[in-house]
Specification:
CATH class of the largest domain: Alpha Beta
Strand order of the largest sheet: 1-2-4-3
CATH superfamily of the largest domain: Metalloproteases ("zincins"), catalytic domain
Number of strands: 4
Helix content: 55-70%
Oligomer: single chain
Distance between the termini: 36 Å
């Protein structure tokens, strides 16, 4: 935990430096001071509210046991198995299959899955994905990931504003010590800075979350199968919210960007085949196969709480399909 907080502090300091440099390029010393104050305020705000900002950014809707019974119970059972407080549960109105976790600590966490993921995957595969996201919460990765997404997105928006302003002659750049060339450079460099924020989130965290998530759900092959499906499907379905704020790409279980432009050069996720291979090796170590059932409830029974069909059992799958993908 202390190491994650140290990484967060270093990330925030780097982002504040980016803001300060951009402020100096645009407005000299006065601009640098203003940018520093704005960055400091943004850092403090994002520490406490970044999860809310990210959820709104992706138009997430909170659900409960009444509005999404199977999905909600799945998260509850897996959180119990992981010895975590119950996170808030959200649905993303997006056809791209994907998911992420957010929050500054396990007591203030949330899990979000897209409609595309809930509709496309089998119940066991959804369990593997949710377990991966809970692993991020348990490892306390979400603080750094969410703060990076919030401030990285702000850097991207600042760059877009500069580009728009220059395009329509909205600035005369008299306060910039570098003139219009400096402002143009800042507008171009800022998106790359946002991509570097993505790179600041270590790829090793995905491997760690894969491994711990497999332990939580009980079968690494469930997550491996899910990664294979959503990795292939995500390439063909545009996630417009993620494309608009590429600095938030590292939040998702798979890269939500479609690889246009320079996105692939700055990928925040390990190669999918490597992740799947490691999960398959873990399955061999655990001695489980594709058909093995290790439900989070009742020590491996395919039933949910109270003896009712769980959302990843055959009966639960039939109920899930009759009631919709998450209700």
């Amino acid at each position: 935990m202390p190491m994650n907080y140290a990484k967060t502090a270093m990330l925030l300091a780097a982002l504040m430096a980016i803001f300060a440099v951009m402020g100096y390029v645009i407005g000299g010393q006065t601009g640098m001071v203003i940018a520093f104050v704005v960055a400091l305020a943004m850092n403090l705000f994002s520490f406490w509210n970044s999860d809310t900002v990210v959820l709104k950014m992706f138009r997430a809707t909170e659900v409960n046991e009444t509005t999404a019974p199977d999905y909600y119970r799945l998260v509850r059972d897996l959180a119990s198995r992981a010895d975590l407080p119950m996170p808030r549960v959200y649905v993303l109105p997006n056809p791209q299959p994907n998911a992420f976790a957010t929050g500054r600590d396990p007591q203030h966490s949330a899990v979000a899955a897209s409609t595309g993921l809930l509709e496309m995957l089998e119940p066991e595969e959804i369990a593997g994905v949710i377990a991966h996201e809970l692993a991020h919460i348990k490892n306390r990765d979400t603080l750094t990931m969410t703060v990076a997404a919030t401030i990285g997105g702000a850097i991207s928006m600042m760059a877009q504003w500069l580009q728009f302003s220059m395009m329509f002659g909205g600035r005369d750049n008299r306060d910039s010590p570098f003139g219009w060339i400096g402002v143009l450079a800042a507008a171009i460099v800022a998106p790359f800075a946002a991509m570097l924020v993505q790179m600041a989130i270590s790829r090793s965290r995905e491997y760690q979350a894969d491994r711990l998530g497999a332990m939580i759900c009980g079968n690494p092959l469930w997550l491996a199968s899910a990664l294979d499906k959503i990795g292939r499907a995500a390439r063909g379905i545009i996630n417009r919210e993620a494309e608009a704020v590429p600095a938030a790409a590292h939040l998702f279980i798979v890269n939500p960007l479609n690889g246009r432009g320079f996105d692939n050069w700055f990928s925040t996720h390990p190669a999918m085949e490597n992740r799947i291979a490691q999960l398959q090796e873990l399955a061999r170590e655990m001695g489980v196969g594709a058909g093995a059932s290790s439900s989070p409830s009742h020590g491996g029974s395919p039933t949910g709480s109270g003896g009712q069909p769980g959302p990843w059992s055959s009966a639960g799958a039939q109920k899930r399909r009759r009631g919709g993908p998450w209700g």
